[in-house]
Structures are given as structure tokens and as C-alpha cells.
Design a protein that fits this description.
The complex is a heterodimer of chains A (314) and B (432). Chain A is mainly alpha-helical and 314 residues long. Chain A is 75% helix and 3% strand. Chain A is built from 14 helices and 4 strands. Chain B contains 11 helices and 15 strands. Classes of the chains: A mainly alpha (314), B alpha/beta (432). Chain B: Belongs to the leucine-binding protein family.
Chain lengths: 314, 432
């Protein structure tokens, strides 16, 4: 079996596992998995930029929120139905990421990090400033009647789970394919040595801009899906905390691995969920575990697996 | 009207279909076990999922909501529980975060198998959690004072029977302000949803009293220094209305005092500015002689009711509104009574509905919706209430206190009618 076949088997196996999980896991964990899959899409988008292109952004909450508010506000203010609103969410994230990418890519390294952070903060304050429309920090509910897509009521647990699974599968497989394509290989080359990639004749700025747009749009789709599946849009999702989450998920799961984002989200979700049952200082437990993982598994869980056992892992 | 279409495509349905072959045999052998469970369930505790802000921006409130809730549950259990069953609290921290809030509601319903969820304060957490509570058909009793419930933006499973909402509070203040303090008001408020509610509701209410807001000063939420905003206060201002929250409150009040010195217009604030803060803190001296809205008087008053006395003792609050164990630990007295009163309403609702288990959740909501007047009592130590079953929102008395010798002394108590407004929704028309 070739490495490529192994990779495909792994990806399809993960999707099959998630499919089966719906039927075998207790209701609580099925509900959690619905959220985890949507958040994993966000992490997949982040990983595309950070893990494969080597650009560390601290402003992805802006893209997540662009998708969320693109969908939410078009429903709330213009009474759009679900499918067009979803497209508006996607388009919002695409446009915002293109503009931010165009401006932020004039910098690199730490400056890129700070510039993206500042843009995201400006986005958060913009949501608060236009509170008359966005309801600011309180946010707003997307009513059940509006959450119907192609006849499926997405507030229903089953429909929600499979909608999340379809979205996750599409993004998961598409990005896995993309990073193996010549374009993806070029991004990895840029990550490893941008000067060399440029010397080989690649337009690295254009490649990086495309990576920001793809990454931001996937993050935005996750934001729109979150609002649609869970019925709420709020400014909290635009705060810096929600820019740091995908970074943590990807670092924990394994940057530059295809299954790392999913593993990272699952790990972090249950780390908080389980430790909060033990103590109210659960963030301390989470913090200690994160430090330990960073010390002893610096490449993340999937990264370590790839390094030590499955060297073929994509 | 928002109704949830019934989907035939459910997880349970699919599992049933898949298990059809073996189901009959399994059911036969399981029947004795099932009846045993039903019997045990009748004496099993009623589980109340308590969504508490232990961490995050709401932590100071959460600490006192927790103490009040534990005291109320102890009292209910000491009186024999609900329908002869003890009450068990299942507390989960939501981090004052709407995403985690929704996850916690899910945990209550599907992991802890709670009968109801209860206790949320911050509006954005209510907004984030309420849709999931509705989907899970989990009665969700919030103690938030937000206008979200009465505005019709939530659902039939979300109720706020134990605390009045901001629209009602603000509206009830306007007559006193206009008649006693002045008609030309400058409002200083945080530039986010909570502040905007004050801006919109009070501006309309003071105009209805023949007054006007001469300047709206919105302070950005990230602001740490306020002096630069004060020159915007017009000279003609007769009353300053302030409602700042968050960690910068002390700085705000100190800088306001430094700006005006000994001669200032009348000052009226919402105690939200100083919940959990000792009014005798250094720098707050200039608050002497100013007025505050209080949801429930922090300092025990000369005419303190026996109900307030009993409530204070049960929760462990002294006559100054601080913990009996630590005089520096000032309570959130204007809000936390809502937990006490809401739990008593839940008890009454469950008893009226003959509540036995989750199958009776709709009956519980209908029983609460049928409630109206609730007299001042040990169950309602803050004062009498009038619950509106259609809007799922309660109305009650508000208190206006003046700071005298470092204590909040009640000057005026509003009537329930002062806070009433037109219904904006009728949740009873929504299906379960």
C-alpha cells in the first residue's frame, strides 16, 4: 500500500468513525461532537495558514465572525433564507480575508501576528460600535424557523450532526487534497524557506495571499455554520480569545498534519469539560497539561505520532 | 410565530429501527427493571442544573449567586423538598461565555439528566444558551435582568420570573428623577448592549415625564481613563445618570469626583456600578449625597421586613450587605435575591404541576405561566411581584437610595405599575 493510499484510508476512516460515533455514543457526546466538528473546520482553516504556510495569525476570530455575522445579519436585517445567507457568510469571510491578507502580508513574522491581532480587535470593536444592528456583546438568536436548509431542520440533533459531519468531511478532504497538490507543496516550500521558494521563481506573496483567503474563508464557513447550527451570533466570538483557540487546537493536535486540528479540538474540549467536573480552577489544569504537552510533544499529538510511529501520516 | 417542525428523522428513531430485531426480546427481559426505576425515580432528587459564572467577567456575581442558591436550596430541602423529593444542585461553570453556556445547558440535559436549568445572569450567556435549552425542551429559568426574555427573542422554555428586567427598572426611575432631581439629564453609559438598553429605555422614559437627555456619553468598553469624556457634560445638566460596569468602575467614579469637586449636578447611578464594591472604598467619598437604583436595599433599613431579615441570615449577609464572615466581601445584593425567589417559584410551579420528571416539563412551564401576583413573603423577600405569563417576565418594586454617611438609605420605593409596559410577545401561543 502506498503512502497516498494509506492517507486516503486514514481520512475516510476518520469520517467513517465520526459517522459510527453518532449511533454508538451517548447523547451528550453526540451533541459535543457536533460542536467539535464545526470547531474543527475552524481549526482546519487555521492549520492551512499556520501549519502549511507558516503564517501565525492572531486574528482569525475576525474571519470566523465575518462568516457568523454575514449569515446572521443577512437573516436578521434582510430576512434572507438559509442558503443565500450561508453564501453571504462565505462571501463576507472571503472578502474580509482578502482585504486583511492584502494589508497584513506587507509584514511578516511577529509583525504579521500583531497586525492580524489589531485588525481582529478593530473588527470586534466595530461589532460593538454598530450595536444597534449587531446587538453588540449580547448578540442575537437565530430563530429555529430560520434554521432550515434544503428542508432539513438544523435545530434537530440528527440533522445538525450530519450537517456538521458533511461540512467537516468536505473541508477535511478538500484541504487534505489541497496540501498534496502543487499549490500546497509550494506553500510548504514557502513555510520552510521563503527566500528559496522566491528564488525558484514562485510568487510567494500571491501564494500567501491565496493561503490567507482560503484559510479565512474556511474559518468564516465554520463561523456561519456555528451560528446556523447552534442558533446564536455574538461578539464574544470576535474576541482575541477566539483567535487563540484555533492556535491552541492546532498546536495540540499537530500543526501541518491533516488530522491534527480535529484531534486538538477534541482534546481541548474534553480537557476543559472533564477538568471542570473536578475543580473550578479547571483552566489551571488545562494550562498545566498544555505546558506539559508543549514540553514533551512539541509537534502536537498527531505530529508526535507521525514522528514516532506513522511516518507516512499526511 | 416560531414553532419547531417535528422531524421524523431522529437519532432515537434510527436507533429504534436498527434495534428492531432484538428490541422485543430485550424489552421483555427489561420490563421488571423499568418498573423498578420508575419507583426509584419518584423518590429520587429533583436535579436543578445551576449555570454559574464562576470564572470570567461575571465571577463576582457568580460567587454570590452561588451562595444565595445554596441557601435557597437548603431552605427548600429543610421544608421537605419539592413534591416530597429532595432538590439536588448540579453546578457547572459557564466561564461567562455564551459558547460554553450552551455546552453547559447540553450537559445538564443529556449527561446530568437535570429536570431544569437555572441561574444565568449575563445576557450574552442567556442569548447563547437559550436556543439549545429550547431545542432540548429543558425549562431554563434565568436571573439576568436583561430585556431578552420579554422582548420575545427567546423561546417558550426560557423564563425570568424572579427578577425584573432593565426596561422595567429604567422606566420606573424616570418619574423620581424628573420630579426630584432635575429634568435635564446627561447619560454616561458603557458603549455596549447593556448601556444601549439604558440609553434607549431611559431616554424614552424621561421624555414621557417632560424631561430630556441633553447628552449621551458612550464610553468604549476598553476604556480605562474617563476624564477626557467629562468636558462633554453640558453646563445645563441638572442630573448625571451613570451606569458603568466592569473593573474600571472605581476609576470612573473617582475621576468623576475629581472632575466636579464639591459642586456637582445631582448624580443618579445604577448600583450595577458598585455591586460587590464597598461604598466606603477610598476615593468614593464624593458619592455621599448621590442617588442609586437598588434592586434590593444593600443596607438593612430602619423598616426592614422580617422577610429580608430571614433571607439575609440564610444567605450569610450582614446589615451592611457584606458577608457575615468577611466584612470586605460585599455582596451583589441588588441581583442575587433573584436566585432565591426564582427557586421558590420553581418549587411552587412543580408542586402545582404535580411534577414527577422530565415528561412533566411542559406542565411546569404552564404552571409558572399561570402565576400572577406574588406577595411579599419569605419566598419573595425583595418585595411583591407580578408575573406576566405571556412575556415570561416578572415585574416588581424598585428602590432608590441616597448615600448617607456611607450607607445606602432608601428614599423612594416605586410601585409595580411604574415598571409595567406593553407586552412585546406572547410565548403561550408557541407550541411545546
Amino acid at each position: 500500500m502506498t503512502d497516498s493510499q494509506r492517507s486516503q484510508l486514514l481520512h475516510l476512516g476518520v469520517i467513517a468513525l465520526l459517522f459510527v460515533a453518532f449511533f454508538v455514543l451517548p447523547t451528550y457526546h453526540v451533541g459535543n461532537l457536533s460542536r467539535i466538528m464545526v470547531l474543527a473546520v475552524y481549526a482546519i482553516g487555521y492549520n492551512f495558514l499556520f501549519g502549511y504556510t507558516g503564517l501565525l495569525s492572531l486574528g482569525h476570530a475576525l474571519f470566523f465572525a465575518a462568516g457568523m455575522y454575514g449569515l446572521g445579519l443577512s437573516m436578521e436585517l434582510f430576512d434572507l433564507t438559509t442558503a443565500p445567507a450561508l453564501m453571504v457568510g462565505l462571501a463576507s469571510a472571503l472578502i474580509v480575508s482578502a482585504v486583511i491578507g492584502f494589508l497584513a502580508l506587507r509584514t511578516s513574522g511577529v509583525s504579521f501576528m500583531i497586525v492580524t491581532l489589531m485588525f481582529a480587535q478593530a473588527g470586534y470593536l466595530t461589532i460593538l460600535y454598530f450595536g444597534s444592528y449587531t446587538r453588540g456583546d449580547e448578540g442575537f438568536v437565530i430563530q429555529q424557523a430560520d434554521r432550515v436548509l434544503f428542508g432539513l431542520d438544523l435545530s434537530n440533533d440528527t440533522a445538525r450532526y450530519f450537517a456538521a459531519l458533511v461540512l467537516f468531511s468536505v473541508c477535511f478532504l478538500a484541504v487534505a487534497r489541497l496540501v498534496q497538490s502543487p499549490f500546497g507543496r509550494t506553500l510548504v516550500a514557502i513555510r520552510e524557506n521563503e527566500e528559496r521558494a522566491r528564488m525558484l521563481g514562485y510568487n510567494t506573496v500571491a501564494h500567501k495571499l491565496k493561503a490567507v483567503v482560503i484559510s479565512g474563508t474556511i474559518a468564516g464557513v465554520a463561523g456561519a455554520a456555528y451560528a446556523l447550527l447552534f442558533g446564536y451570533a455574538g461578539a464574544t466570538f470576535a474576541t482575541v480569545q477566539y483567535s487563540i483557540f484555533p492556535l491552541l487546537w492546532v498546536l495540540l493536535g499537530g500543526a501541518g498534519t491533516t488530522i491534527g486540528p480535529l484531534i486538538g479540538v477534541i482534546f481541548m474540549f474534553y480537557l476543559i469539560d472533564l477538568s471542570s467536573d473536578i475543580t473550578s480552577a479547571y483552566m489551571l489544569i488545562a494550562g498545566v497539561v498544555l505546558v506539559l504537552l508543549t514540553l514533551f510533544a512539541p509537534q502536537g499529538l498527531a505530529g508526535e505520532l507521525r514522528k514516532r510511529v506513522f511516518k507516512w501520516m499526511p | 410565530m416560531v414553532t419547531k417542525p417535528e422531524s421524523k428523522f431522529t437519532r432515537r428513531g434510527m436507533l429504534k429501527t436498527m434495534a428492531a430485531g432484538t428490541g422485543a426480546i430485550a424489552a421483555t427481559s427489561a420490563l421488571p427493571g423499568l418498573s423498578g426505576f420508575a419507583q426509584a425515580q419518584s423518590s429520587a432528587p429533583i436535579k436543578i442544573g445551576f449555570q454559574v459564572h464562576r470564572t470570567g467577567i461575571g465571577a463576582a456575581y457568580g460567587r454570590w449567586y452561588n451562595r444565595t442558591t445554596e441557601a435557597a436550596v437548603k431552605r427548600i430541602n429543610d421544608m421537605g423538598g419539592i413534591n416530597g423529593r429532595p432538590v439536588e444542585l448540579v453546578a457547572e461553570d459557564d466561564g461567562t461565555d455564551p459558547k460554553r453556556g450552551a455546552e453547559v445547558v447540553e450537559k445538564f440535559a443529556t449527561q446530568h439528566e437535570c429536570d431544569i436549568a437555572f441561574g444565568t445572569l449575563f445576557s450574552h450567556v442567556v442569548y447563547g444558551s437559550s436556543p439549545r435549552a429550547g431545542e432540548l425542551k429543558l425549562p431554563y429559568f434565568v436571573v439576568s435582568e436583561g430585556h431578552h426574555v420579554a422582548s420575545g427573542k427567546l423561546n417558550r422554555y426560557t423564563l425570568q420570573p424572579g427578577i425584573t428586567d432593565v426596561k422595567s427598572q429604567v422606566q420606573a426611575m424616570a418619574p423620581f428623577v424628573a420630579n426630584n432631581l432635575g429634568k435635564k439629564v446627561t447619560m454616561i453609559f458603557p458603549d455596549f448592549a447593556f448601556g444601549h438598553d439604558h440609553r434607549d429605555f431611559f431616554t424614552a422614559a424621561i421624555e414621557a415625564q417632560g424631561g430630556e437627555v441633553v447628552e449621551h456619553i458612550a464610553i468604549p468598553p476598553t476604556e480605562t481613563s474617563f476624564s477626557k469624556y467629562f468636558p462633554r457634560i453640558p453646563r445645563e445638566t441638572e442630573v448625571i445618570y451613570h451606569v458603568m460596569v466592569g473593573p474600571a468602575v472605581l476609576t470612573f467614579v473617582k475621576e468623576l469626583g475629581e472632575f466636579f469637586g464639591p459642586s456637582s449636578p445631582e448624580i443618579f447611578g445604577f448600583i450595577d456600578s458598585l455591586e460587590a464594591v464597598d461604598i466606603k472604598s477610598p476615593g468614593l467619598e464624593f458619592l455621599e449625597g448621590t442617588y442609586f437604583w437598588e434592586g434590593n436595599p444593600r443596607n438593612a433599613q430602619a423598616d426592614q421586613t422580617s422577610h429580608d431579615k430571614a433571607y439575609r441570615a440564610a444567605v450569610g449577609v450582614d446589615d451592611n450587605g457584606a458577608s457575615v464572615e468577611d466584612a470586605q466581601d460585599v455582596s451583589t445584593y441588588s441581583h442575587m435575591f433573584g436566585c432565591w425567589e426564582t427557586l421558590n417559584i420553581i418549587k411552587r410551579g412543580m408542586e402545582t404541576a404535580g411534577y414527577q420528571g422530565p415528561a412533566d416539563r411542559a406542565k411546569l412551564i404552564e404552571a409558572v405561566e399561570a402565576m400572577s401576583d406574588m406577595p411579599l413573603s419569605d419566598d419573595h423577600p425583595q418585595g411583591a411581584k407580578r408575573f406576566n405569563g405571556k412575556t415570561h417576565q416578572t415585574f416588581g418594586h424598585q428602590y432608590i437610595s441616597k448615600v448617607s454617611d456611607g450607607k445606602l438609605v432608601v428614599e423612594h420605593t416605586t410601585s409595580i405599575e411604574d415598571g409595567l409596559y406593553e407586552d412585546e410577545v406572547d410565548y403561550t401561543t408557541q407550541s411545546f
